[in-house]
Amino acid sequence: MAEKMALAKAINESLRRALDSDPKVLIMGEDVGKLGGVFRVTDGLQKDFGESRVIDTPLAESGIVGTAIGLALRGYRPVVEIQFDGFVFPAYDQIVTQLAKMHARSLGKVKLPVVVRIPYGGGIGAVEHHSESPEALFAHVAGLKIVSPSNASDAYWMMQQAIQSDDPVIFFEPKRRYWDKGEVTTEAIPGPLHKARVVREGTDLTLAAYGPMVKLCQEVAAAAAEEGRSLEVLDLRSVSPLDFDSIQASVEKTRRLVVVHEAPVFFGSGAEIAARITERCFYHLEAPVLRVGGYHAPYPPARLEEEYLPGLDRVLDAVDRALAY
User: Fold this and answer.
1) Residue at 20 is within a domain
2) Which of 130, 140, 194, 284 is the catalytic position?
């Protein structure tokens, strides 16, 4: 039976299932226990599983991830929360020089099944360092898997798969979508963690996005349909590895591609997608691959974030430009 729940609740239920099914799963982070997290994603878990399984840590991100690495070396499967996206950088050294490298450093003998949960992105009117999208920084680092769900069902199942992975996973949670509800079937058989999914069929152009921008792209496709344009929406779901085969299959059908993400366009994940698809689909493309994202500037104050973030009009403008070729 499917149950309708918010994306945040789906993650909570997924974490609860993981804690219940595997005594080696631990949750760690700032205020994840008694408070249940800033967004209440871990609400009730410490009460039900105890302080030795759901651990309130000091305000020390480097220490949180470093401790998780040590626990993983001892056979545990830690799930650590970085309270906000901009707070991850004190832990950046631990993530990229230790967590990402240990498997290669040990010639495959050591595995680090650590999940780093990061609420990310804007749209909630937050202050500085609370609305950033640093996924491309981590995607550049070999040894890390980078995923981001766009809906409640994916949030539930992708978290299960991330915890079960023997490789470290950076799990970016789109905080503006925490309260969006969707159907979740907890006994379903999930698809591959890093497989993209077509969420709307189309023939004229492909919109590729992940996390918070998938819903926007669906709104763009609905608006374009009123003008007789058929847009395909592809939920990438994973940033590293990227499912280039699914992107290529869609582009070979529609012959145009617009990539949308909240992070700055400059050196963003859309740049890699554009380059790779241009290589793969050169003789299929009828327009250059276009990118829509944030600006190459610090994230602005809340009153300006609607101007900074991609919106319906900015994406539709890119669609118009691509279709004009």
Assistant:
1) yes
2) 130
